[in-house]
Design brief:
With 1192 residues, the protein is mostly beta strands. Among the domains are: 137 residues, Jelly Rolls (Sandwich); 109 residues, ntegrin, alpha v. Chain A, domain 3 (Immunoglobulin-like, Sandwich), CATH 2.60.40; 108 residues, Immunoglobulins (Immunoglobulin-like), CATH 2.60.40.10; 107 residues, Sandwich (Immunoglobulin-like), CATH 2.60.40; 117 residues, Immunoglobulin-like, CATH 2.60.40.10; 103 residues, Immunoglobulin-like, CATH 2.60.40; 93 residues, Immunoglobulin-like (Sandwich), CATH 2.60.40.4070. It has 1 helix and 90 strands. The strands form 22 sheets. Strands 2, 32, 33, 35, 36 and 37 form a 6-stranded antiparallel β-sheet that branches. The chain has a 5-stranded mixed β-sheet with strand order 40-47-46-42-44, with no helix packed on it. The protein has a 5-stranded mixed β-sheet with strand order 49-56-55-51-53, with no helix packed on it. It comes from candidate division WOR-3 bacterium.
């Protein structure tokens, strides 16, 4: 027996200072926001694209010389000149949209450009208000960005200026933007700013463009507002725009720096762990790209592309990512849209949510444009006054533009004496339409992430339990994926809490975590150790879990014996093995993760596990053969039989293609029957598939020959391929022909005769010598038309002779066996010859058996496994379909009993099948699942059919009969109760019993009691008739009862008369009732009934009369709780003494002693006295007056 206690540890992150120590992606920050709960802390998005919170993209433009900043409001019908907000400002410049004051209404922040100040237009439910704004001093700033760079929970405003040159950083706070930092710098900083954690130190860095010198600059930010500045290793003639993304997918951000008005070249700087100077930059000639750039996967090839917004009335230009360094070049680019622009900015997004990316283009003219995808030929024009910039906020994740962001928490330590053993996780999140905060957990035994840590585990719902595979670890960490479908609807997280149940760490250690490789249909042995550091010998139960389907594992000792329980000696090491068998046909990239788990049988909380990762390895190779040649005439198709051989270790759908050296020939590939054109073949390891290449010279082809290259390529790895070379020559009508080539079927024992023509196209008679050879050891000969054996034939000039080729198929031939014979004729006049090819194939006969018929029984919910044998009794290899013909309970998937994998559909006809050689068999199994609600009367007949594909009329059935056995799960007896009844009264208590099972049964009843002696009798539900022994087994029962139905009965009670005496008596009776099933008496439940007997309201004294010096006792009984007074008077009404006043009295009997003295402490004189007892309860109020006397 083992006893353990679980201790609960509570971990909550809800405040800004709780979240701030985690790792956060660039699109998020930890704010001081208070939304659904009272603590000021929230993980939310920096950028806002919907300024009035209606779910649509809103677009911005800024008139170069005023009078407005224009906000074009999105709607279900797109954009129009009338659906807008105008904010008064007389200069253009950059615009950023963010919720600065955390009231859920986004603000619009304008950089000012030629003005000496920036402006915050404060948000409202309908959008920014023209009259509610705050100005911030800055030096003619064109660019702007907002982010919480000092991690205080408030967004800061970054304004790089040019008069004076420098950078203004206004720090946000609850009270606004009065505090700022000015960083002087001697160059102009223009167009747009980007912020991202470039060096992955947990602090977001600032990236700027130095337009006049053609360079860029990074300010690497750090704790306590420290920073360092670094000039980027690039120098163009002039620069202007900036984009940030991981274009080469190496895990580090890259920088796109676009050309300004003095340069037509832009640059891409490649990020790495060493910064931006270890990989040479890519230089592309984009044209004057003063409008900057944006990054998106425009052609949907899973590679990020770049669009450049160009001036001088040019079209926007997309550079497509090639996937290999230098990734971008001028030839792999495309100008788009039917219009030309003087673009000063823009960004991309799916503005109408149709699945295609659209473009917003700020145009230094009378109109700016929404350009609609997917072809970017349609557009909507919106009126502006020389639009000079707007918003440069790019959508999606900074690295890949996918719609998600990520937060990874700090690591929570439970302490050295505690490990996870249960608990729940809950969170509070705002998840607008199409968005979600996806919660993941992992745990480990080290403060650093190492091999002791589990993989991330997804938690579906708030309030869910911590998964069991995270147990037994000291450390816990969570991750939030902030996913969304629309950038206008993004989620935020306000609180996450963990109620962690802990237990002491296990003294059991199973190790190591390890990994290895295994070939298909092979196995690998891992050497594992178990150590127990306790003080006594312990039995440990070992088992495996999480093994992938199709893989098979065994735990053995070092001698190969199967084990599941081992004895561990303190501080000793037990060596054992895990043997893992790979699937028969895995993919080359398949991987299995198996956990070896163990726990002490004396205390299952003392447990440990080891993680074993096994990866598939093996050879992927193939061949196609033979290289061959043939001759035909123009317009006549010639077939070339080829073989595709899978020489590797994996199943492979081998891709087929071809090329012709001459355009005067056409080709195609078919299966071996020539009936279906194909471009791939499915193969098993070491399998050979026959195909046919058909080549046709066009009638007017000028080429006398053609080389066809047939390529077979692995579907797993494109670079693995082989080729066969097929040369086709043209020829003219020969002088000698032996024809036709023929194909025929025959049965074993058949004698087949083929009639052939021998054609002499010469101008004179010829003697044609005849011979043959063939590949089977079958009897064959050449005869004349009368059956005479011949070896030559005389054919006149320009005439035809006839011969017979006769061949006999042996009796014992297998179906599908083929003989190929070549009958050759050689001219006696000329050195020429010709041959006819005769192919004879043995017909396939089919016979199929599946056995045996079986009968089993099982419980509801149980899965019964039936093993069967499928036998091919035909004369050739057969693909035998196996399927469930009839059953209500059987699974439709049938499994290979050796691999435990579902049978394949090898011929793609919709049925599972097995491929068997003649007289071969294969063992399979079928699972029959008994329904949870099945009764013992239910049964099922499953008919499993095996059917030949060689001959569908050849089939056999196996009958599997499954009967449900009686099963009982639980019984309850209700209710436990407590009642109070007066003495000398009767009472009826109603009870019921209910059981769960799949069959009717008797409910037996027994009872016992202790305490007060009551008259007790078990009766029916009405209390009229005593229960009897219906099944005559010596016990009272409720008769035959149905499962899940309440069966009511009662207990009749008769209380005894009240004992008016001082002697103590029992006033409580405990009845213990037991109910159980007749067919399963170990399944029982009990009910406890407590009876409290209520005494009457009564008082007397004993002895009476009494000696005053010895005193007397008052016996008092009360029927309920209350308060009482007891006073003694003389016969004249004079009060002698008050024995108690307002004394609390519990229900029951009480003894009050009077010592015979009055209130002055003197003994009373002999005589008659009157005592008055007054009682006040909740229901009863009564006064009792009685006499007593004192003896002389």
């Amino acid at each position: 027996m083992w006893i353990y206690f679980l201790i609960s540890i509570f971990w909550i992150e809800t405040k800004q200072e709780d979240f701030i120590d985690g790792k956060i992606s660039d699109g998020l920050y930890v704010s001081k926001g208070i939304y659904q709960e009272q603590d000021s802390g929230c993980i939310e998005f920096v950028k806002r694209f919907d300024i009035n919170n209606d779910g649509y993209f809103d677009l911005t433009s800024a008139d170069e010389a005023g009078p407005y900043i224009r906000i074009w409001l999105g709607s279900s019908s797109g954009y129009s000149p009338t659906n807008r907000i105008y904010l008064p400002r007389d200069r253009g410049g950059g615009v950023f949209i963010a919720d600065l004051n955390l009231d859920t209404y986004p603000e619009l922040i304008h950089s000012g450009h030629e003005l000496s100040y920036a402006t915050i237009f404060w948000g409202s439910p309908s959008g920014p208000s023209p009259g509610n704004y705050t100005t911030l001093y800055a030096g003619k700033c064109e660019a702007i960005y907002c982010d919480d760079i000092n991690k205080d929970g408030w967004l800061d405003i970054i304004l790089p200026g040019r008069d004076p040159t420098g950078i203004w950083i206004y720090y946000g706070s609850r009270n606004g933007y009065s505090n700022y930092l000015y960083i002087p710098f001697g160059e102009w900083i223009e167009h747009n700013v980007e912020i991202a954690d470039l060096n992955k130190d947990g602090w977001k860095d600032l990236i700027f463009i130095l337009s006049e010198s053609g360079r860029g600059m990074i300010i690497y930010w750090g704790p306590n507002n420290t920073y360092r500045m670094e000039i980027l290793p690039i120098s163009l003639t002039s620069t202007h725009g900036l984009s940030v993304a991981d274009l080469d997918k190496n895990g580090w951000l890259d920088l796109v720096i676009s050309a300004y008005r003095y340069s037509i070249q832009s640059a891409i700087l490649w990020g790495s762990s060493n910064g931006f100077d270890s990989i040479p930059p890519t230089i592309i000639t984009t044209g004057y790209s003063s409008g900057g750039s944006a990054v998106w996967d425009f052609n949907k090839d899973n590679l990020l592309d770049i669009i450049f917004f160009r001036i001088s009335y040019q079209k926007p230009k997309i550079y497509y990512n090639t996937g290999t360094y230098p990734y971008f070049n001028d030839t792999n680019s495309q100008e788009i849209t039917p219009l030309t622009f003087w673009a000063t900015g823009g960004f991309v997004g799916d503005f109408n949510f149709d699945g295609d990316i659209d473009i917003w283009l700020n145009n230094r003219a009378d109109y700016s444009y929404v350009i609609w995808g997917p072809n970017w030929t349609n557009y909507t024009s919106l009126p502006v006054s020389s639009d000079l910039h707007g918003s440069f906020m790019e959508i999606g994740n900074t690295y890949n533009r996918v719609f998600y962001e990520e937060y990874i928490s700090s690591i929570f330590y439970l302490g050295p004496d505690s490990v996870i053993n249960g608990g729940t996780v809950s969170w509070i999140a705002d998840e607008p339409q199409g968005s979600k905060c996806e919660v993941y957990l992992r745990s480990g035994n080290s403060s650093q992430i190492d091999t002791s840590w589990t993989d991330w585990v997804y938690i579906q719902n708030s309030g869910d339990s911590i998964p069991q595979n995270l147990f037994d670890k000291h450390y816990l960490q969570y991750k939030i994926i902030f996913s969304y479908l629309k950038p206008t609807y993004v989620p935020k997280l306000e609180e996450i809490s963990f109620n962690i149940l802990t237990s002491p760490p296990s003294l059991l250690n199973i190790f190591p975590d390890t990994s290895s490789y295994v070939h298909p249909k092979d196995s690998v042995i891992y050497k594992v150790k178990a150590v127990y550091t306790g003080e006594t010998n312990e039995l440990v139960y070992l088992f495996t879990s999480n093994t992938h389907p199709g893989w098979f594992v065994k735990l053995t000792d070092t001698l190969g014996n199967l084990i599941d329980t081992i004895l561990l000696i303190p501080n000793d090491t037990f060596d054992f093995n895990l043997k893992i068998y790979s699937p028969e046909y895995p993919s080359p990239f398949e991987c299995d993760t198996t956990y070896i788990k163990g726990y002490l049988i004396s205390n299952p909380l003392k447990r440990d596990s080891a993680r074993i990762i096994t990866k598939i390895t093996g050879n992927i190779s193939l061949k196609i053969e033979p290289d061959t040649e043939g001759v035909t005439v123009p317009g006549v198709t010639i077939p070339y039989p080829l073989r595709v051989i899978n020489t590797g270790e994996f199943k492979d759908s081998i891709l087929l293609s071809y090329t012709n050296s001459s355009s005067g020939y056409i080709s195609y590939i078919t299966d071996s029957t020539g009936s279906q054109i194909i471009n791939f073949v499915k193969t098993f390891p070491k399998d050979t598939v026959k195909i046919i290449l058909w080549v046709t010279p066009l009638p007017a082809t000028p080429d006398s020959q053609n080389l066809t290259k047939v390529i077979a390529r692995s579907s797993w790895i494109n670079s693995i391929y082989d080729s066969a070379l097929v040369m086709t020559y043209l020829y003219h009508m020969p002088y000698l022909l032996v024809e036709p080539d023929t194909f025929s079927y025959g049965n074993p024992g058949d004698n087949l005769k083929y009639r052939l023509r021998v054609i002499n196209n010469q101008e004179s008679i010829d003697t044609i010598n005849l011979s043959f050879h063939h590949n089977q050891n079958w009897n064959a000969r050449i005869t004349d038309t009368l059956g005479n054996l011949i070896n030559k034939i005389y054919v006149p000039a320009k005439d035809t002779g006839f011969i017979i080729f006769e061949i006999s198929i042996p009796e014992n031939s297998s179906g599908g066996v083929r003989d190929t014979a070549f009958i050759k004729g050689v001219s006696n006049n000329l050195s020429i010859s010709d041959s006819a090819r005769i192919i004879t194939e043995v017909k396939v006969s089919a016979a199929v058996y599946i056995e045996p018929d079986q009968q089993k029984e099982g419980a509801p919910g149980e899965k019964i496994r039936y093993y069967l044998k499928v036998i091919n009794s035909g004369n050739s290899q057969d693909i035998i379909n196996v399927y469930v013909l009839q059953s209500n309970w059987a699974e439709r998937i049938i499994y290979d009993s050796l691999t435990n994998m579902p049978l394949n559909d090898n011929n793609n006809d919709g049925y599972q099948d097995v491929i068997l050689a003649p007289l071969a068999f294969q063992k399979i199994y079928v699972n029959v699942g008994i329904p949870q609600n099945a009764s013992s009367e239910d049964n099922d007949l499953a008919i499993i059919r095996a059917s030949s594909t060689n001959n569908p009329s050849a089939w056999d059935n196996a009958n599997l009969f499954t009967q449900v056995k009686k099963v009982f799960y639980s019984i309850i007896l209700e209710p436990d109760t407590e009642i109070s009844i007066p003495y000398n009264s009767s009472f009826l208590i109603n009870l019921y019993s209910l059981f769960q099972g799949n069959s009717n049964d008797y409910i037996e009843l027994e009872y016992s009691f202790s305490g007060a002696n009551l008259n007790i009798e078990l009766r029916d539900s009405q209390g009229l008739n005593p229960l009897i022994d219906n099944n005559q087994n010596g016990n009272i029962d409720l008769g035959v009862c149905e499962p899940s139905n309440k069966n009511y009965f009662s207990i009749y009670l008769r209380a005894p008369e009240f004992n008016y005496s001082i002697s103590d008596t029992e006033d409580i009776c405990i009845i213990r009732l037991k109910g159980y099933l007749y067919s399963y008496n170990t399944l029982y439940d009990s009910a406890k009934i407590k009876i409290n007997l209520i005494p009457p309201l009564y008082i007397f004294n004993y002895e009476s009369p009494f000696d005053s010096k010895r005193g007397t006792n008052f016996f008092i009984s009360v029927p309920e709780d209350g308060k009482g007074n007891l006073e003694v008077y003389s016969r004249l009404g004079e009060k002698i003494i008050t024995l108690f006043k307002n004394k609390p009295l519990k229900r029951g009997k009480h003894i009050i002693y009077w010592n015979g003295k009055n209130e002055k402490g003197n003994y009373v004189a002999p005589g008659v006295y009157i005592y008055v007892f007054e009682f006040k309860g909740e229901k009863i109020k009564k006064t009792i007056t009685k006499k007593t006397s004192v003896k002389r």
